[in-house]
Amino acid sequence: MSDLTGLHIVVTGGGGALGRAAVEALTDAGATCHVPRHTDVDLSDEAAVTAYYQHLPPLWASVQVAGGYAGGPFAVTSLADFRRQMEMNLTTCFLCCREAVRSIGRRAGGPRGGRIINIGSRAALNPAGGAIAYSVSKAGVVALTQCLADEVKASRILVNAVIPSIIDTPANRQAMPAAAQAVGDRWPKPAAIAGAIAWLASPANQLVSGALLPVYGDA
Fold this sequence. Notes:
Layout: E1 8-12, H1 17-28, E2 32-34, H2 46-54, E3 61-64, H3 79-105, E4 114-119, H4 122-125, H5 132-151, E5 157-164, H6 170-175, H7 177-183, H8 190-201, E6 212-215
Parallel strand pairs: 1-2, 1-3, 3-4, 4-5, 5-6
Helix pairs in contact: 1-8, 2-3, 3-5
């Protein structure tokens, strides 16, 4: 693991299982993590996100974990349901990425450039029915990641996404007890995914940008 001592990193969604694991991995490497609480910052509100990032020290990296899942048949998915998934998964990612790019640009000293890591989903790369609003919102995250990686490459900001399958969390086990009983032990663990996030966020990553890194394990 590369040394992240003295580097400031935002982790959205830091209260969830994956977010907590990411914060732990990054702080273990020496980073100072900033975790916006949803009670204080609405990450789908442009003014709130801008103000949050502006009050922080200039960043080295930002990790966009915040989001949410909603499934259901397409024929009964309302426009409000669709918009809610886009707000939770794509709008929050867009706003945080934009403010991270601005913040990284204000940083002086230390390693050049910065890192942005987004959380996609296997559902975006292998789309299927049953959760179309979610899949489309995560497909937007995938496109955002690759477009942004191309746009900021001259600034040495490396932008990547990790792509989990079903993550082994208590909430997922409770929501899918039959699947958890059958294959839950094969679901990727938050700490293992966090290890991939931490490496992508580190100065040791000198080349990887625009990647969609599958973190499926053997699930």
